[in-house]
Amino acid sequence: MQVFKFGGASVKDANGVKNVASLLQKVGYRNILVVVSAMGKTTNALELVVKNYFENKSELQSALQEVKKYHNEILLDLFNNENHQVFKKVGSFFNELNLFLSSNKSPDYNFVYDQIIGYGELVSTVIISEYLNSIQIKNNWIDVREHIKTDNYYRRANVNWEETQQLILSNFNKTILNITQGFLGSDTNNFTTTLGREGSDYTAAIYAYCLNADSVTIWKDVPGILNADPRYFEHAQLLNKISYREAIELAFYGASVIHPKTIQPLQGKEIPLYVKSFLNPEAPGTRIGKNITLEPMVPCFIVKKNQVLISLSSLDFSYIVEESISEIFSLLHLYKMKVDVIQNSAISFSVCVDNLYDNLEKLLHHLKAKFKVTCHENVSLYTIRHYTQNAINQIEEGKTVLLKQLTPETVQVVSK
Length: 416
Fold this sequence. Notes:
It is an enzyme of class 2 (transferase). One of its GO terms (cellular component) is cytosol. By secondary structure, the protein is α/β, with parallel strands linked by helices. Helices cover 38% and strands 24% of the residues. It has 13 helices and 16 strands. It has helices spanning 14-27, 42-55, 60-78, 85-103, 109-117, 119-134, 161-170, 200-211, 244-252, 263-268, 322-334, 360-367, 389-396, and strands at residues 2-6, 32-36, 139-141, 177-181, 184-186, 192-194, 215-220, 241-243, 273-277, 286-289, 300-314, 338-344, 348-354, 371-385, 401-406, 410-415. The strands form three sheets. The chain has an eight-stranded mixed beta sheet with strand order 3-4-2-1-7-9-10-8, sandwiched between helices. Strands 12-13-11-14-16-15 form a six-stranded antiparallel beta sheet, with helices on one face. Strand 3 (139-141), helix 7 (161-170) and strand 4 (177-181) form a beta-alpha-beta unit. The longest helix is centred in the N-terminal third of the chain and has 19 residues, at 60-78. It is globular.
């Protein structure tokens, strides 16, 4: 059995959906599970719905209408008959969403975010499933929330592996093509949870692990994994082969082509991961597996924008020792800061974080009670695996370097 994952760019319009169907006809769809993200930029559009729900109620329905209009245009391009059941199914999801928006009493942003944002994947997969059925590619639509169970850490939920595996194994038909959503799960109260942005890759890996799949293929609009994001770096090169370990390192440092948690379950059962182009499905792409040497051996560049660099020093010039560091990390955990780089000396401590939950002001207020604090917002974090001096010069040119850290395999630079 194989697991295929298609991202939003691959199904951003009716032609994208038709291309998915064509790809399945070319490569085969027996014993396949297809995991699909929200279409195009739907997640961003639904984030605006969330924002308006909390900050600008007068624009809420307008933002939601844009999401409906976008999907309706795709439906009209795919289905000649407006009485097709897919229109009713999509409409019922939007009715559910409207009901939530009108009846919700929770002030918890993260909870509300997860209840709203998941409709992108639900609508996307219903449209694709119904289209495939209409052209005689028979398939079974699965609500992933009935399979993947998590805690209630909304927006970055943790999987309950034992319960998830039991549910998948007892409710999965391997003999037909199955279609399900990426990114989503549900907690013990059956509220929707999400696995973190780009979490659809992780969903594919969860199913692959539980079903002992032969492989996972992530279909993207690039030829495979590149050694750099072509939006920020010129002359990006295709990586033909990389090891699980290398992929985990790249994902940890922020390589956007793979979700950070994706590799671990695959490595556990030595399930190979392929990253291929949905525009050229016959091309080999990138293979990730066990005991593979990076090919070609070139520097790999990763950049994370809009980071925060916090530098601390003791108020009385005393050493920053284990007790102080423990307290700092407790606060970072309390305010849900994702730590990307740390650096410390005898009387100073610097940390580069991702302020995902918008808790920076609360954190700084807490830190200032015990430390002298300097904060740089909107900095960029550059990471180079297998660096050369020329590679370092390339990312430092024309920038103010605020922090730099080197290990034998990796260099990280925080700059303005």
